[in-house]
Amino acid sequence: TIRTMESLTQSVASAIQSSDYARLSAIFSSQWQSLGQGEQRTLASHFIKTAIASPSFFPDAFRSPQIMTVITTTLNHLPPTVENAADNTLRQKIFDFKLNDEEDYSTAARMLAGSRMDENDEGSMYVNEGGFHHNNDTENEVKDERTVTLMLRYKSTYARVLDANRKFLPAAMKYHDLSTAYLHTDAIDADDLLSMLGRAVTCAILSPNSAQRQRVLGLVSISSASSTMKHIFLQ
Prior knowledge:
Structural class: mainly alpha
Helix content: over 70%
Shape: elongated
Radius of gyration: 21 Å
Strand content: under 5%
Distance between the termini: 59 Å
Order of helices and strands: HHHHHHHHHHHH
């Protein structure tokens, strides 16, 4: 078994170096089935770390259906932690590629939403969001409806990542920001904006008591002055 794992890890590294997509597909399909759960997790982690470290494997590999299948398989069979959060790095790379090169918003959102976060990851997500806004300039300066919609898609995905990882206070703030999207575009349905405000309320209530929590609740209370929001509280 040890020799088998050594052989497979060497094969994975070699296939990544030569961009041998067919070889990687074979490893993570037929040969993959003969491994135990622990070995699968080890090999999945090895693939992701080696692929991320390669200077030439990505982004070209993202264009291969075979490699996208391999990526899906490995992301679903990881140990509790991966060195240097390489799985999050991979998800971010896929997010950027799908968003900017293919405009595949659905896949981009699913990949980013699966990110595993600790406090350091949360900080890096804030940096990534800041970079996104910087690259697209400010909302006041960018009038193109498509760009505004793109930013809202990113914010919505980010808010859900925070929510899913029980980062309730920052999630509440992001949901509240999204609920004011009508200030920038009329492309968002009123019910969706209302739903975001409702999620902001829920996340704020679930977050630990703090001065920042009270501030968020205050912002939500101001927004809830509308008759529509009152309807939510009465339900």
